[in-house]
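In response to reviewer comment 3 from the previous cycle, which asked for concrete evidence that the modeling workflow produces usable outputs, we include below a single protein chain processed end to end. The sequence was submitted unchanged, and the resulting structure tokens are shown without manual editing.
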Amino acid sequence: MADLGTFWQSFGFAVQSTLRDFFGPSGSLQIDTVVPDIKTAENFCGICLRHIDLWKFLAIKRKERGQPKLMDDKYFVIFIDEFDALLHAENISIRDSFLGVLHSIKTTDNIYIVKSVVGIGTFNILSLNTQTKALSPFNISDAFKNPNFTPEQVTTVFKEFATEYKLEIPDDVIEDICLNTNGYVKQTDWHAGLVNLCGRAIWSYMEEHGHILNGKLSYREWKIFSGEHLGTKIAEYRTFDKMIKSLSNESSRNANNLLRTYFLGFRGDVKIPIGPKRELANFLVGEGILLPDEGTGSGMAFKMSSPYVDSIIRRRILPELDTSAPMTAPIKRPNKTYDVLRLVSDAVRYFNKDILRNAVTRAFKTPKSGKVEGASL
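The workflow returned the following structure tokens.
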């Protein structure tokens, strides 16, 4: 949104609609009071004041039901999903106004009914601040990491899904989902959001192709679907859509170069020393692309968050930034085959030179013994 007034009307309508589920003639609490309109920052602050009728009637209702009194009589907990959208607000006055209001509520909590405000988003919400950097409502001690799934939980979730929708999902499909939502054998937790997206994608595929599946999602069908089709489903999700737009900007080229040089295609830890590269790595952590792992001394290790994220960057971001490519299609031989060595020779001219220079130390496929036979290019 580009307009501050529109933002507060939209946010206020969401808060008002939620409160009306509980208050008013049709509310579940059966408290006959009116939820006022919320169209401005002042309206929002007003609805959070402790002394208004809304909260007084709630206190009376709780007393009638014999419920224990809350500590300091605070009833209102606000959860805000996609909180990192404030980072990309076209009008910085939206961010400054909203964070300023939350800061006011937090620092003058004796007059407000708000017990807590929970912002949900990627790591970069920890760096959210106003333009003056003086009114942040949060600090690092307020951060909580959302727990991921264990392997047993992933299996349980998909078994329950299969039972509910009468679809057989073999163990090798579930194992493949585990591998690609995390990709690290030594890890014991899996990205809950990506696991959920895989489930949603399977449901969508089942709705469209149920007549072909015949009640079973075979491993072969899954691998076909989990290529471009699943990538599209993941990319459409708001969190990943924002990530793609952020990295597709020319201003993110250095961050993409860091990914290409050190991380893409590699599932291990990479130590990045303090300096410009560390800043780029921290930016990528904020976008949900890298995972941090505290190291020792001046080094800090990072790794790709998952193979699925790796694939999104390769397929949807890098091709948009690097448009150089052969202008003509490969020519087939008379027997309809290709000269593979010639294809490789032509393709190498378009490869990123930094990656080629690092091939000696960063090649990930090596023979168990002996040398690979082949002519020099």
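The chain is about 50% helix and 5% strand. We consider this sufficient to address the reviewer's concern, and the full set will be provided in the supplementary archive.
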